[in-house]
Design a protein that fits this description.
Elements (H helix, E strand, L loop, with lengths): L2 E4 L2 E5 L10 H18 L6 E6 L5 H14 L3 E7 L2 H10 L4 E5 L8 E7 L8 H13 L13 E3 L3 H10 L6 H7 L2 E5 L5 H11 L3 E5 L19 H9 L4 E5 L6 E4 L8 H15 L3 E5 L5 H8 L4 E4 L3 H11 L1 E6 L3 E3 L9 H15 L3 H5 L6 E8 L6 H11 L4 E3 L4 E4 L4 E6 L5 E8 L2 H18 L4
Helix pairs in contact: 1-2, 1-4, 5-7, 6-12, 7-12, 9-10, 9-12
């Protein structure tokens, strides 16, 4: 069982002992820390926080603990109850709230939950802010409100519908064109809130919907990470029902994967590539993804005359670089679309609407669209080291060895070769180096990974 504290929030497994797992005591402690931090950093008298959750089994319990802790601090709460991560992010500025908390462990299995923390813009906190909250939690230096100053909870149920309307009203979303295309789309909502939001959005766009696991029970019918090996049922459903495509989201709806009409994966890395291709074709500009994302986004951006840059891994890092470079679309290769025209957060609803508009405009099958992009293949590995080894020293030696290549050290070591790349990142919690490679064939990506693993072992004297 596990409790992981990071600058972006706290996540852990339900049950067990406090400080070792995400127990009620830990939920209250970290909600107290976040609320106290908001009060300390705000000059306003009465604060307001938006709270929403995915459908996982522990969600209601954790939400009640968090909301009641906030009102105990004298903070008012807007209770969205079952919601999505991007919906909470959209709601925070619309409510003129001072922050937001999303209760979700994203793609982690059902025994996990988490508190994801937002600022007044509905964006994730930066590193300094997160560190302050963690420090306050350790000190447990909280002052709660007296009885006449307690906050109150207001239940608001319209925000998924509001979010959908915000998406539909975007200039690059053409609901009329999508409806005229008469698409049939199969949806796997993994029995979480994507099963509410995605079918609602599709029906609003005039799409015929086939639902699979769209009841928000929190009992995930398969591993909730939207990877090929977990999605056999939706792939078979798309083929059997002759659907135009399949849509798959993770439990909190910030990761998006498409299934082509032939039942094959469009490729999670290519969700962002296709959406960016459409956006750039209408509004030329720059793009950003993280260092572990596919080179295909760079290729598409350059095709449209834009500039591409890569950030350190982590949504907050992608968002900051997007702001710094005035990027008009960006995200992460795991299927996360960030479209600032609506908000700075990964948003599967925006991704679905942009993709369907593009598909309707192109008048081609999903598999045909996929063939228009350069094919890259990834290999993701890790090498476990003994705790005594200095991981930073190993990475510095790798960097020195390849100093004549294009090397980035903003997040581990990434080496860009002409035909492939290698990205090495150390874990913050264990003596592991994660090794990501990409090349123009799976065989080459695997071969490059094996070669790098061998070199690391040699440097570390493990062979």
């Amino acid at each position: 069982m596990t409790l992981i504290k990071s600058i972006s929030g706290i996540r852990g497994t339900i049950g067990g002992k406090p400080s070792e797992n995400l127990t009620p005591i830990d939920a209250v402690k970290f909600a107290s820390s976040y609320g106290s931090w908001l009060k300390n950093s705000s000059k306003k008298g009465k604060l307001k926080v938006v709270v929403g959750r995915d459908a996982r089994i522990s969600g209601s319990m954790i939400q009640q603990l968090v909301m009641n802790t906030l009102i105990g601090l004298g903070i008012d709460v807007i209770d969205l109850d079952l919601s999505t991560t991007p919906t909470v992010e959209v709601a925070v500025p619309l409510e003129k709230a001072d922050g937001g908390i999303i209760l979700t462990a994203s793609h982690n299995p059902k025994q996990w939950n988490a508190l994801k923390l937002l600022n007044e813009k509905g964006e994730f906190l930066n590193g300094d802010e997160g560190a302050q909250i963690l420090e306050m939690a350790e000190k447990a230096d909280f002052t709660f409100a007296e009885v006449d100053a307690l906050g109150k909870i207001e239940r608001v149920d319209h925000y998924i519908d509001t979010h959908i309307e915000e998406v539909v009203m975007l200039p690059l979303v053409d609901a009329k064109k999508i409806a005229e295309a008469n698409f049939t789309v199969a949806v796997d909502g993994v029995n979480s809130t994507g099963g509410i939001a995605i079918p609602k959005l599709l029906k609003r766009l005039g799409v015929n919907v086939i639902e699979l696991y769209c009841e928000p029970t929190g009992h995930f019918p398969h591993n909730p990470e939207p990877l090929k090996e977990h999605l056999t049922e939706i792939c078979e459903l798309v083929k059997r029902e002759k659907a135009d495509l399949g849509v798959v989201v993770d439990p909190d709806v910030d990761r998006l994967a498409f299934i082509s009409e032939d039942g094959e994966m469009f490729g999670e890395e290519y969700t962002l590539v296709a959406c960016a291709d459409y956006v750039l074709s209408k509004t030329p500009g720059n793009t950003v993804s993280n260092l572990s994302s596919s080179r295909a986004l760079r290729d598409v951006t350059q095709k449209h005359g834009g500039s591409y840059e890569a950030s350190a891994v982590g949504e907050v890092n992608v968002v900051q670089l997007m702001k710094d470079t005035n990027a008009i679309i960006g995200g992460e290769g795991n299927g996360g679309i960030i479209y600032p025209e609506l908000h700075y957060g990964r948003d599967s609803l925006v991704g679905v609407a942009l993709f369907l508009t593009f598909l309707a405009e192109k008048k081609m099958k999903v598999s045909e669209l996929r063939k228009t992009y350069p094919s890259y293949f990834m290999s993701k590995n890790k090498i476990e080291l003994t705790p005594q080894l200095n991981v930073d020293d190993i990475l510095q030696k790798v960097e020195a060895k390849y100093s004549e290549e294009e090397v980035s050290t903003i997040d581990g070591v990434k080496i860009d070769f002409p035909e492939h790349w290698v990205h090495l990142r150390k874990s913050n919690t264990e003596p592991i180096i994660r090794i990501y490679t990409e090349a123009k064939s799976q065989e080459k990506a695997d071969e490059v990974a094996e070669q790098m693993i061998g070199e690391i072992k040699k440097i570390a004297n493990l062979v």
